[in-house]
Write a structure and sequence with these properties.
The complex is a heterodimer. By secondary structure, chain A is an alpha/beta fold. In chain A, about 40% of the residues lie in helices and about 10% in strands. Chain A starts with 10 loop residues before the first helix and ends in a 23-residue tail after the last helix. Chain B has 2 domains: about 5-180, Thiamin diphosphate (ThDP)-binding fold, Pyr/PP domains (Rossmann fold, 3-Layer(aba) Sandwich); about 195-320, Rossmann fold (3-Layer(aba) Sandwich). Classes of the chains: A alpha/beta, B alpha/beta.
């Protein structure tokens, strides 16, 4: 895909890309800090380094579109408009968290803005994304579903079953693969016999495209094209965004599996400084304005952490609620 | 009242709900042109068209998961899985996604999804097409489990599933499809979950029969009646939720219990009922809670072997008599 000139995007849009990527990065760093500090009891799979995929894709979607996310989902949720306050409260296992403290990092959802849920099962979210798209198609609604996943999940059976069904019925689905080169602790080349996972789309009758996953504009453009294709009834697209996970599979991962120097090479291609440089060089946004945006992110996160830390914790017996909608006079709970 | 078959009752429940609610649709392998491999959706394609009677590839995980996604978007899918044995192809989707979606989301995900699936041994179908997997799913909270034994229950329980807001695994016994019985024509006829059916009143022994074994329990009761033993037959109708109250009341009267189910004996549905009685009704019991169930081996192909493994009417009779003639 030929890249458009940066001047073709509005200043507002570019500022949003920058602010949202900064929000994702800083949210992750805060979460890591608060986990160390004890506010967050559960484990965290951070997406540091993958901000351009989450934000580029999220910005290309409308509020009515839906996503399914993964264990490494904080960026996807923020990119889709998730509120860091309720996310942080959920990570801190507090009552006002997105899932009332029942879900945690792996299961955050917000049905009001189309976040159908992060997922603790690698490859668990594909079929639901297909089903949401089926509902949109049957009801003739102008909406798409986008399912985020990694290079590890593409080897799960659910990818293949879901891609087949979506291709067969030309459903408005975007399969968004963040190829960060590692499935947990095993490199991608030891997990699949092909390097470009986008090739897999061909077997299911829809296009597979490769984008630089560290370039937020490239990701945005590819997602816009995929979305238009989906809405026009032509069916799914597989986007493979090549990127890199700066931190371990989970916080605390000793990362003994990474070759020396690899992280440093990718850090040179960190999506946020690279984008910042482009913005300043093109003279669209001044350094001062960027500093202001970064300051507003810090304020927002201070507020989120404060909200989480001061939020009430659940009452133990609440664990028995919310399993079913209809409890049949209390017979099931 | 008019009589229709168990199979027709299921079809009628689906068709009525599809007529009155455009969000209801049927999706599964061979449900359309073929009419369902068991013939349950026969003719529905003509009335509702291929959008709503939707044939799929052989892809259980995607079918169930698509049902989940569509349900969360406000549709009311009916997923048909041809054999209970195939449910585990969609195991993660059922147990980790469908069953937990509401809870994990803090109660916000709505999952009005009904999974219709066959259960039981149809005869020489061997180890991968004959199982009764109800209890596999009883251990995981978040999914209701329905096991109708009569045409009226088949209709009334399915209507409750289709109008409810929770995921339901609805087990249709293959050997009951042809059974006929009276079924109300009222389009709002529904049978609530968690209300057991006392199929036969009696005083000496309670036999709890699940699905096909409820029918066999009645046959056993008829036979035992001629020998002077009065059997109360209870069909729980739903295993999750379970109507403990009706079961315990019956046991308070009879003091003796046999639980009959076609699944394997170990950790089966009857094991849960026996444990519940041990915890909550032991003071009423005059003897052990007996389980009549399939032996703990895979179901064999040979009729001789299969009949040996499966529970039958005679096994219920023997279990009942053992209260007076312990071996």
């Amino acid at each position: 895909m030929t890249q458009k000139d940066i001047n073709e995007y509005s200043k507002n849009q570019l500022a949003r890309f920058f602010r949202q990527m900064t929000l994702v990065r800083e949210f992750e760093l805060r979460a890591i800090e608060e986990r160390r500090g004890g506010l967050i009891p559960g484990f965290i799979h951070s997406c540091v380094g993958q901000e351009a995929t989450a934000v580029g894709a999220g910005e290309a979607l409308s509020k009515d579109d839906v996503i399914t996310s993964t264990h490494r989902g904080h960026g996807h949720l923020l990119g889709k408009g998730g509120d860091p306050k309720y996310m942080m409260a959920e990570l801190a296992a507090r009552s006002p968290g997105y899932c009332l403290g029942r879900g945690g990092s792996l299961h955050i959802s917000d049905f009001d803005i189309g976040i159908l849920g992060a997922n603790g099962i690698v490859g668990g979210g594909f079929p639901a994304a297909v089903g949401a798209a089926l509902a949109f198609q049957m009801r003739k609604e102008e909406r798409v579903s986008l399912t985020f996943f990694g290079d590890g999940a593409i080897n799960q059976g659910t990818f293949h079953e879901s891609a087949n069904l979506a291709g067969l019925w030309k459903l408005p689905v975007i399969f968004f693969c963040e190829n960060n080169l590692y499935g947990e602790g095993t490199p991608q080349h030891k997990q699949a016999p092909i390097r470009d996972l986008a090739q897999r789309a061909e077997g299911y009758g829809f296009p597979g495209v490769i984008v630089d996953g560290n370039d937020v504009i490239a990701v945005y453009d590819a997602t816009v094209v995929a979305r238009e294709r989906a809405l026009s009834g032509e069916g799914p697209t597989l986007i493979e965004a090549k990127t890199y996970r700066h931190r371990g599979h989970y916080e605390g991962d000793p990362m003994i599996y990474r070759p020396d120097g690899e992280l440093e090479e990718w850090q040179k291609r960190d999506p946020i400084p690279a984008f910042r440089k482009r913005l300043i060089e093109s003279e669209i946004i001044s350094e001062g304005e960027l500093e202001e945006l970064m300051g507003s992110v810090q304020e927002q996160l201070d507020e989120a952490v404060g909200f989480a830390a001061n939020a009430p914790i659940p009452v133990a017996e609440e664990a028995l609620q919310g399993v079913y909608a209809d409890t049949h006079d209390g017979l099931v709970f | 009242m008019r009589e229709i078959t168990y199979s027709e009752a299921i079809r009628e429940a689906m068709a009525e709900e599809m007529r009155q609610n455009s969000d209801v649709f049927l999706i599964g392998e061979d449900v359309g042109t073929f009419g369902g491999v068991w013939g349950v959706s026969n003719g529905m394609l003509d009335e509702f068209g291929e959008e709503r009677i939707r044939d799929t590839p052989i892809t259980e995980a995607a079918i169930v998961g698509a049902g989940l996604g569509a349900a969360m978007m406000g549709m009311r899918p009916i997923v048909e899985i041809m054999f209970g044995d195939f449910l585990m192809c969609a195991g993660d989707q059922i147990l980790n996604q469908v069953a937990k979606a509401r809870f994990m989301s803090g109660g916000k995900a709505n999952v009005p999804l009904t999974i219709r699936v066959t259960t039981g041994a149809p005869g020489s179908a061997a180890a991968q097409h004959s199982q009764s997997p109800e209890s596999w799913f009883m251990n995981v909270p978040g999914i209701k489990i329905v096991a109708p034994s009569t045409p009226a229950d088949a209709k009334g329980l399915l209507k409750t599933a289709l109008r409810g807001n929770d995921p339901v695994l609805y087990f249709e016994h293959k050997m009951l499809y042809g059974d006929s019985g009276e079924v109300p024509e009222d389009p709002d006829f529904m049978i609530p979950f968690g209300k057991a059916n006392i199929l036969r009143e009696g005083n000496d022994v309670t036999v709890i029969g699940i699905n096909m074994m409820a029918k066999k329990a009645i046959q056993a009761a008829d036979q035992l009646q001629t020998e002077g033993i009065s059997v109360e037959v209870i069909d729980p109708r739903t295993l999750v939720p379970l109507d403990k109250e009706t079961i315990i009341q019956s046991v308070a009267k009879t003091s003796r219990v046999v639980v009959a189910y076609e699944g394997h004996k170990r950790a089966g549905a009857g094991a849960e009922i026996a444990a519940m009685l041990a915890e909550e009704a032991v003071e009423y019991l005059d003897g052990p809670v007996m389980r009549v169930a399939a032996k703990n081996v895979p179901l064999p192909y040979s009729p001789v072997l299969e009949n040996y493994v499966l529970p039958d009417t005679g096994d219920i009779v023997s279990a009942v008599k053992s209260f007076w003639n312990p071996t």
